[in-house]
Amino acid sequence: MTLGQKIQTLRHDAGLSQEGLGEKLGVSRQAISKWEADGAVPEVDKLIALSRLFEVNLHDLLQVEGTSREEPEESGEQPPEEAAENPLEKDQPPRRNGRWWKALCVVLAAAVCVQGVVLFRLNEKLEEQEGLLGGLRSRIWSLESQVSSQEAALQQQKEQTDALGSQLSTQDGRISRLEQSIGLQDGRIEMDPTLPLVSDVDFTLETTEYGTRALKLNLLPAQSAAGMWVRFQITCPGGAARGHPSSQLEDSSAYTLSMICTDEEISSGFTVSAIFFDKTDRQYTQPLVKISDITEDGWNAETLWDQ
After folding, report:
1. Region 195-206 average pLDDT
2. DSSP string spanning 126-184?
3. Distance separating alpha carbons of residues 38 and 234, to the nearest angstrom
4. pLDDT tens, position by position, 21-42
5. Which of 107, 137, 145, 202 is most buried, by the most CB atoms less than 10 A from its CB?
């Protein structure tokens, strides 16, 4: 049985006319007539639609016998209804199966080729996109590496800057102490009122053998200038100030004060200041210590020179 005969048989079994089948497949009645007369082969999509419409396997639909179409045994004439539907079928001679078979193979081969080309192009597109994605990932990784390197370099520079700042502060302190030391040694640097005048002060308040109170104080200046000398000043609250000369031991930069305290100074307390003079008689006053609450058992002292 040929493909056209199978289509005709399935159409009859489904109770469809050529026009009805054509409407379901979206083709004309003449196309159905050509298919059933083996004058043309349905396209691939139409074959698939026929297999779904008649609920038969596509392989079974395409499986044909090598013989020509069988004629009805009971009668050599077609039924009146079929003859009316297909008046050209009687006049058309049987066709060989090889013709539609070749056409079908050509259609299938063309479809496979088209699908192959489409898949090949899609694969090329996919590989191209994967290449672009790989390049983008590499670029991102490179940028991240550069950012990390720059952050590490900035952190290292910050640490170096902090270390240099600390070293500079240390050097400044050393230079200041060295300048003070040089000034104390040879007195070549003039006094600078913006710098500390006093380096250290220590004192004591003693009771003499006569029952009086004596103040003994040692002053170590922080600066030295040519011709510099020091005089001490004692000031009571609300009272007049009195001056005391200082003494300096040989080969020593310290100035000393030794004095007997008056009753007023003992009762009300007093403040000791140092007045520094240079060779031009410019003077610089620096309060040293404030002593109060003097009793036989002790006293209170407030340091002023380091404020």
Report:
1. 94
2. HHHHHHHHHHHHHHHHHHHHHHHHHHHHHHHHHHHHHHHHHHHHHHHHHHHHHHHHHHH
3. 141
4. 999 889 999 999 998 998 988 8
5. 107
